[in-house]
Design a protein that fits this description.
Chains A, B: May function as somatic storage protein during early seedling development. 2 copies of one chain form a homodimer. Chain A is built from 9 helices and 5 strands. By secondary structure, chain A is an alpha/beta fold. A 5-stranded parallel sheet of chain A has the order 3-2-1-4-5, with helices on both faces. The first copy, chain A, starts with a helix and ends in a 9-residue tail after the last strand.
Chain lengths: 224, 224
């Protein structure tokens, strides 16, 4: 028998990950101890490991393109896909506190987000196997471009094709609209998007989605 | 600390419900006792209840159409959305055994699938509030049409706009392609699909998806 609070958290998390719950601003406070246990107790890491295993299976199944795959691309999100904000969100009660733009900016400027090990392994595998990796982030180029570029490098994300930030022209656009437009441009250059990985459904919906999308878990916040 | 087997089942189920795991034919046999506990121990029902709550919240947020909503439609899948095959799958080790077309047909012909209570409640709410409900099923019209129609009626699914079966012309098509074409026809008649509910991602992907989709849990089988 699962305790009532744990049971509610399981249902809530399922609704988040299956894209049923949308537009939520904070994690329900009765979930605090459960989201903490999920993020820190090993299940989050095991969930990531299984998804990366599935991505690797998919890669091994796909038939190489006729031009030897030189234009085969993968799209990876940055925050809580490549690098982790868990340390920051720990101080925000794992998302039970509302989003704090100034606090998050200060954290991101430090450039100290650790790599998510499973995704770093995937990234290195993709680069080693000749895929062109595009890192697409909603972080603002002007204010966070340098810190983020440095952060990714110091965590081992080396060898990507391009790192794309949100520029002034996209300000006010939803993540889904902005990322769709970037993917459209990537495809227009002749790349074929064979996979797309992100922790938010807004990374994985919209236009030019590529052949396959993979949703990484994130029960701490929702980006529209 | 979650036991290793339970932890693996959680990761696996998350991958299924987030649409990361695709094309799987059976539930991994090490998950048997966990999928059984999930389906029969209450968590499955609680997960369904929360999703139906979210559907009701969505309905209360949407602005009625200009014509008073007379053409506002909902799409509901049938198997393991409106009515449950859990009793049948219990005899198939909750999906650890491979799909058995003849066995499933014999079960469906009995017309004894019980309603899923949360979805029956949703269905009645939709009908009472003037939505046009379309039940779209991959069941074959010729062989299972009568038994299914009777089964839905004896379980209280009364007042729907239309119940649509797979006909010979769609044979061999994926559920996603078949259901997309049916939704396209529904929209062409002038209906606006405001919501779409199913236990399979193939119910919820493709074309003419409507304004919002809701994925119900189903860790027992995968329909492409």
């Amino acid at each position: 028998m699962i305790p009532e609070g744990a049971s509610y958290f399981l249902s809530w998390r399922l609704a988040v990950e299956a894209n049923n719950a949308r537009g939520w601003r904070t994690v329900p406070s009765q979930c605090l101890s459960y989201v903490e246990a999920y993020m820190l107790g090993g299940q989050y890491d095991r969930d990531l490991d299984l998804i990366v295993d599935q991505i690797l299976s998919y890669i091994n199944e796909i038939v190489p393109s006729s031009d030897d795959g030189a234009m085969d691309a993968w799209i990876l999100d940055v925050d809580d896909t490549c690098i982790s904000n868990l340390v920051y969100y720990r101080g925000k009660r794992f998302g039970c506190d509302p989003f704090d733009p100034a606090g998050f900016k200060a954290w991101a400027l430090k450039g100290g987000c650790p790599a998510i090990p499973a995704v770093l392994g995937l990234f290195k595998y993709l680069v080693r196997n000749g895929f062109k990796v595009f890192l697409i982030t909603g972080r603002d180029q002007e204010t966070l471009g340098q810190a983020t570029t440095d952060n990714l490098r110091n965590q081992g994300f080396i060898g990507y094709e391009r790192l794309i930030f949100k520029t002034a022209g996209f300000r006010g656009q939803s993540a889904s609209a902005y990322k769709s437009e970037i993917r459209r441009r990537v495809e227009k250059e002749g790349y074929r998007i064979v996979g797309n990985v992100g922790d938010q459904w807004s990374d994985l919906q919209g236009e030019c989605l590529g052949r396959r999308a993979f949703k990484l878990p994130n029960p701490m916040y929702f980006v529209p």
